[in-house]
Amino acid sequence: MIYNKTGKWGLKLPAVSLGLWHNFGSEDSFDNARRVLSHAFDKGITHFDLANNYGPIYGSAEETLGKVLKSDLYGHRDELVISTKAGYDMWPGPYGDGGSRKYLISSLDQSLKRMGLEYVDIFYHHRPDPETPIEESMMALDQIVRSGKALYVGISNYHPKEAKEAMQILKELGTPCLIHQAKYNMFERWIETEGLLDALEDYGVGLIAFSPLAQGLLTDRYLNGIPEGSRITHSKFLTEAALNEKMAVIKELNNLATKGLGMGLSELALRWILRDKRVTSVLVGASSVEQLDKNMSIADGKELPADAIAKIDKILANG
After folding, report:
1. 261 part of a folded domain
2. Amino acid 301: pLDDT
3. Domain total in the chain
4. CATH number where 17 lies
């Protein structure tokens, strides 16, 4: 496993981090989740990423991790980086959503109980809240670090203007922003075009990319049609229309990966993200040990050839 510095700061994250958004909730197999988490750690994935409402049911992914920490990973806490977030809806009423100090601190307290932890390594505000001043949310993050409930703080889903404001406030408070978690893949490049990567570099903040495979579009899963029981049949984040719109480009990228570079499409998509040294880590999900291993090949640190990157840009531009 390759470990990269997070921006200018001393904390290193694995090139591949494991996200628990799907497949680790109470409606999924605990035994399978346990196998995947333990296998990930054995392979050098030291960073597990969660949020308060990951499941389903809300909170249950954190509970699953808590059980595995107690059973399989007991004694390895200091070898792990565990992150969680709050910002989207979690519980009913006016205090279970958004960016208020009340919500963020209460949510983290609940998360720590679910995971059986005294602190998390990284705590994120999951999204800007239009009804709460950014300074209130950032003051809450500062308080959380000073209280010992988190070692570092980050932001997620912040666009450049809001991100700059948040990072400047945290800098002035003396609790600098460590990392930004943003959606980034071949089909979603707003962090480049809107200047977020440049802003993060200016502040010395790392970036971790979520949805690097575009919810499965950048894999071989849909090359021959939609498999029975696929997430695309019931997901609000991935639709058949989106698949059909991108299919010609997906097939061209797959052809470049398999015939031109001797790798799978998903490996190509993940290596492409890590071509930019401002990216600290890519956040992958996994429904099985086999799927995790398939995405682990990029952990060797090998870079895509410049001509391959140029070909990818041409394919994406024409698509």
Report:
1. no
2. 84
3. 1
4. 3.20.20.100
- Answer whether 290's CB lies under 8 Å from 43's CB: no
Q: Is residue 264 part of a domain?
A: no
Q: Are strands 12-14 and 3-5 parallel, antiparallel or unpaired?
A: antiparallel
pLDDT in tens, 23-72: 999 999 999 999 999 999 999 999 999 999 999 999 999 999 999 999 99
198 inside domain: yes
Whether 249 is covered by a domain: the verdict is: no
Q: pTM for the whole thing?
A: 0.94
Q: Count the neighbouring beta carbons within 10 Å of the beta carbon of residue 128.
A: 21
d(CA 289, CA 296): 10
The string of pLDDT tens digits covering residues 276-297 is 999 999 999 999 999 999 999 8
**AA identity, residue 273:** I
Q: Is 197 exposed, middle or buried (0-12, 13-18, 19+ CB in 10 A)?
A: buried
**pLDDT value at residue 183:** 98
Q: Which domain holds residue 157?
A: 4-8+11-217+276-300
> Taking Cα atoms as reference points, which of 119, 131, 143, 199 lies closest to residue 166?
199
Asked if 170 contacts 141 with a C-beta cutoff of 8 angstroms, the reply is yes
